[in-house]
């Protein structure tokens, strides 16, 4: 059975995630089709599904993720990881909404930072090389314009739930304790990050 299932919105992200898993000893397969998944369940540790949904209209991305979620819902023991673009492009909100509606996870963690490549989050604002992503050229991307740098706002508006933002100060002081205190009160968490 799969230990990890990754749902990615583009092929590059799919393959990159598979490579990262291999560094930790996970054998993975990347699929671009939703059918035939079961034939790999006893052959690999990690399943990576490329939905190519980043540039789809939001309603189509939502439908695609609902379908994928229904297929992977049978793998109850697997950790599900939603691979997104680290500059917040794409249909992040509707895709997470679809996954959450079908899979009903106990907790959702949103941590889009990739500090090594200049993507950081501080006080809930996501930056690209020190500039809020919605103030960069990405805000004018013709296929995937970034509308907000505020990760809490992005999630709350898309998911219709309150999101607990974990700021750097809280993370550095006592992350485990604060998480234990918040579990049960919150089920969606967004995290600041400035370093790997």
Defining key terms:
196 residues, alpha/beta, Rossmann fold, four-stranded parallel sheet, three-stranded parallel sheet, 5 helices, 10 strands
Polypeptide structure, described:
By secondary structure, the protein is α/β, with parallel strands linked by helices. The chain folds into two domains: 105 residues, Putative sugar-binding, N-terminal domain (Rossmann fold, 3-Layer(aba) Sandwich); 90 residues, Rossmann fold, CATH 3.40.50.10840. Helices cover 32% and strands 20% of the residues. It contains five helices and ten strands; from the N terminus they run E-H-E-E-H-E-H-E-E-E-E-H-E-H-E. A four-stranded parallel sheet has the order 2-3-1-4, with helices on one face. Helix 5 links the parallel strand 9 and strand 10. The relative contact order is 0.14.
